[in-house]
Amino acid sequence: MYGKAFAPEYQGELGSALGVNSSYEEVLATANRARSSAGTALERARAALAVAEANRRLGRVDDAGAAWRESYRSARTADDAAAMAWALWSGGTLARQCGTLPLARRLLTHAVTLADGSGDRLAHGYALAGLAETGRIQGDYAAVAELHEQLLEQGRAHGEARHMVWAMSGIAQMHRNTGDYDKALELFEESVRIATEADDARGRAWSLRGIADVLSVQGRPDRALELLSEAEVICRSMDLASALAYNHKMRGNVQYRAGRYQEARETYALSLREFTEMQEPRGVALSRLGLVKSRARLGRDPHETLAELAELEKDFTRIGLRHARDMVIAFRAEVTAPPAAETPAPHCDATTLRSPAVPARS
Fold first, then answer.
1. What is the pTM of this model?
2. Hey, what domains does the chain have and what are their CATH numbers?
3. Of 41, 103, 197, 231, which alpha carbon lies 20 to 30 A from 319's?
């Protein structure tokens, strides 16, 4: 069993003023007022943490970076290990969002150590979850699959729906990326159900995106686009700038797989602008890959396509995105393959092979 979702990153008085579905503009305004009126170092640390998280979700990475560092300094002044762990969790999450994965690992590892010593179970769990997600994004599934399962069991044991949704959707993403679409769909659908019952709108939006991805791969683009539209409403209502950009990138993926290359090109261009504005290099690179593939399908000169693929391979290698790098290599092989000899037309019930999908979340 589990209760309603809650947001432990909003601490002290902020915990009673803000909820898991508060819009991030509201969070930012409330946290800034709390920071201005803070009477102790610990109060300043908690308020700055909320400021950092709101700015991160809004895509304002410079402000988020300044705020989590302020939170850490104030927590250190207060000599509160748990508060320091929360600040480092925020900083590590921001580093991952910005594509600096080695820094994300260092900050989150330090957060795990501090939280463990402080006895704050939630800070410890969130820091471990951050490490697991960082490894998953890098494609290091063998290293983090068991950790995802452990975190899911912890969420179930303590009735924490938000954590269950996070862990379950992460496991689903690994199944999706390794080709077990039925299992991925089952887990994403269960994640949506839990998020809905626990009133976790953000978790529902991410999980709907996961279902849309799998349905698209299985050849159901129209239903996938409907689910992405539903998730987009949630993202806009909560000011989830990064999640909205990833939603748009997934819409481009769906359109591309369905052979709607002109629509896909326009949608990838939209997500590229959004990621560029919020200085999120991982999203920028993934959107560029979608654009390269769409333009190639629309007749772009192969030499230009190969040149940009070479740049993207360097970007994905630098960021540490193994799965995305594999997608670049696979598409380059398609571009450079010699023209196939004429073959008989397929039977009407034959399945058309599609290009591998651009990897999903963050």
1. 0.85
2. 1-138 (1.25.40.10), 156-228 (1.25.40.10), 240-336 (1.25.40)
3. 231
